[in-house]
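Figure 3 (text version): structure tokens given as input.
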């Protein structure tokens, strides 16, 4: 019966401590997606760099297209609470800024902290959830609490964040796509998962390596011959589709590589993490707004 399943959920979860973290697609402490490497050639997919024996997405903020390189080697909104704005002040283990960790962080208008770290209206039962279900621990409307709630949904399994997913771990996937990444079964997470003549692409599918730009297209039109991967760019000449991002930085088209690239907007003359900003340090700011905070000059 459904009430027995709900009781089991309550007993397993107990009191919520950090709902914003409960849907982390990889176990706490995982570096990258968990793939190991001896050299960069072993990596690929979403984590093309080899760092300290693990395949990672980034090694510095500059490789994240304006986002932050978190301690787990993946790009995200934040590495700590200090990186998050006032409205979403908490950095989750997914490197995502959230409004709350517990209900104590929410106000009277939206007193419940959802499993995704959002302050929402409290629910008492499923009738107030407009087709969803009321989570018995968080008192918040979610897509599911039990797998039975996912019948007819995109995925048959219910995640800790109350979402119906195709998989929650590799055990839920088949031989053709054996890796569970953010709720989807994927063919590969690194090059060594593919046949000897194949590479793992950013879409986590194996592909034959390119030898020239002619073998690439779409949003990855340039061939990095050294790795055999189709990428956004290998040189500035590849960056022609967006006039605001004319330079190639870590195989991504960005606004700038250095301050000398920031000439289009006189109010944003310095290059910070591949973006043209007002300031890098206080000395870049005028006397009327002498403090540089979050790359903006302020009083």
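Below: residues designed for each position.
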């Amino acid at each position: 019966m459904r009430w027995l399943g709900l009781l089991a959920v309550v007993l397993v979860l107990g009191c919520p401590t950090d709902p914003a973290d409960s849907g982390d697609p990889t176990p706490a402490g995982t570096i990258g997606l968990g793939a190991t490497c001896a050299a960069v050639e072993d990596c690929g997919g979403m984590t093309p760099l080899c760092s300290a024996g693990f395949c990672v997405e980034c090694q510095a903020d500059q490789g994240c297209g304006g986002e932050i390189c978190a301690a787990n080697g993946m790009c995200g909104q934040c590495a700590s609470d200090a990186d998050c704005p006032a409205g979403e002040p908490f950095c989750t283990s997914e490197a995502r800024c959230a409004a709350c960790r517990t209900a104590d962080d929410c106000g009277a208008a939206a007193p419940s902290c959802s499993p995704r770290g959002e302050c929402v209206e409290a629910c008492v039962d499923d009738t107030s959830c407009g087709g969803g279900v009321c989570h018995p621990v968080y008192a918040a409307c979610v897509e599911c609490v039990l797998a039975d709630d996912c019948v007819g949904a995109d995925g048959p399994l219910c995640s800790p964040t109350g979402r119906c997913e195709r998989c929650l771990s590799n055990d839920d996937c088949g031989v053709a796509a054996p890796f569970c990444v953010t709720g989807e079964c994927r063919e590969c997470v690194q090059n060594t998962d593919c046949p000897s003549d194949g590479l793992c692409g950013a879409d986590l599918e194996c592909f034959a390596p390119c030898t020239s730009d002619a073998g690439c297209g779409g949003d990855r039109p340039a061939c990095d011959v050294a790795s055999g991967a189709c990428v956004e760019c290998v040189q500035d000449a590849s960056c022609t589709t967006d006039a605001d991002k004319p330079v190639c930085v870590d195989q991504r088209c960005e606004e700038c590589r250095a301050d000398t690239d920031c000439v289009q907007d006189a109010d944003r003359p310095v290059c910070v993490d591949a973006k043209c900003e007002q300031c890098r340090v206080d000395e870049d700011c005028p006397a009327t707004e002498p403090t540089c905070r979050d790359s903006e000059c302020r009083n």
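Residues 266-299 form one domain.
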